[in-house]
Amino acid sequence: MASNRIVHVIGTGNVGEPLIGLLADFREAFGIDEVTFTKRSPLAYERAKVESLVRRGAQLCVDRDVREEFIRLGHSPTYDAQEALDRARVVIDCTPSASRNKSQYLNMKGPAGFIATGGVELGFGKLYINEINDSSLVPGEDRFIQVASGNAHSLAYIVKLFGFDGDTSRLGSGRFVCMRRTSDFSQERNFVPSPKVLPHDVEGFGTRQAREAAYVFKTMGLGLDLRSSAVQVPTQLMHTIWYSLEMDRPLSTEQAIERAVESRLVAYTDKQSATLVFAFARDHGYHGRLFSRLIIPTLGLSCRESRLDGFCFEPQSNELISSVAATIWFLYPNQVRQRLEALAPFMFDEV
Ligand SMILES: NC(=O)c1ccc[n+]([C@@H]2O[C@H](COP(=O)([O-])OP(=O)(O)OC[C@H]3O[C@@H](n4cnc5c(N)ncnc54)[C@H](OP(=O)(O)O)[C@@H]3O)[C@@H](O)[C@H]2O)c1
To answer: What atom in ligand 1 is closest to the CA of residue 101?
Structure first.
């Protein structure tokens, strides 16, 4: 089966659902033969989303012992979940138990690569952020890739945008406050009624976001001084990050704006409010998502000599793009950027 370009996704939650849809919609451009996915629990209230994914071209796979229940709900599963794993070339685990599942994957002969989107527990594989540490991936050696969390993507893109000249780091230190939305639109639990401060529980880095971003740069041989704090805020809209970068050369506010304007990956905006950016994504994005890696409100940028302070809105699609990029890398190691060009219609210069 190893010659088939079959991609199998496990989990249909907050991360799995949009990823399965994205892979199915763009499977030709990404060079994928088949997209299959495992849904664990047969649930009537999730029937519509599963059938929508099937209509978009993905194939439902379920465990043998719940197959009849899925059929009773009106689904037509194709493969058994274990069979789907065995026939896949790339497996993407979008469940909270990805790290624990790794021992099972280690013994599997079929798949060429495994990807985890779990951002919390480290240890699944090499931490990866598309357009940051692609050069650290080694064909034939890296069989396990762990996509960094969404906030870590933002931190890394901010550092690369303002704190690097080309591939050379000019960063002295980076400090970040991740103002995290309490829940996604797809979640109905755990809303917080007021800002809730999260503990600094990661030694040396403050919170896990800076640790992940620093570890990604470490795969490129760079030791960056990054430190983050996090607070949950009562909104379902985009995460917002505040940053303060100390660099070894001056950068004017005009130069910082110019970098945001000229970047291929980043969108700038004169909007100041996440709700306006979110509304733009709903009306002009891909199923409500922007594929620009960061949205920089230019009015929030302020430089004094070699220190830059600013904000960004996080478009909530970076972990999806990196998961797709890692998938393409396993299938076509030299064609990641070229095949991701299919997403360009949903990347914007200005929002
Ligand atoms: N990299 C990132 O940026 C990022 C962002 C958000 C989340 N995450 C991480 O990604 C993981 C998933 O998050 P989520 O928000 O998508 O979770 P979620 O919405 O709770 O969904 C979890 C999904 O996993 C399925 N599942 C759980 N255990 C399973 C198992 N043993 N076998 C098969 N399916 C199983 C569930 O299936 P049923 O509902 O059918 O039972 C559900 O579809 C978490 O570890 C989270 O920390 C990463």
So the answer is: 31
Distance 11 CA to ligand 1 centre (A): 6
Among 40, 80, 318, say which to mutate for ligand 1: greatest number of ligand atoms within 8 Å of CB: 40
pTM listed for this prediction: 0.96
Distance (angstroms) between ligand 1 centre and the Cα of 82 equals: 18
CB count, 10 Å around CB of 164?
15
CATH numbers and ranges of domains, the chain = 6-147+319-343 (3.40.50.720), 150-316 (3.30.360.10)
- CA 116 to centroid of ligand 1, rounded, Å: 10
Nearest CA to ligand 1 atom 6: 15
Q: What is the pLDDT of residues 146-162, one digit of tens each?
A: 999 999 999 999 999 99
- The number of the ligand 1 atom at minimal distance from the alpha carbon of 43 is 40
Task: Categorize the per-residue pLDDT at 1 as very low, low, confident or very high, splitting at 50, 70 and 90.
Answer: very low
Taking only the tens place, the pLDDT of each residue in 257-288 is 999 999 999 999 999 999 999 999 999 999 99
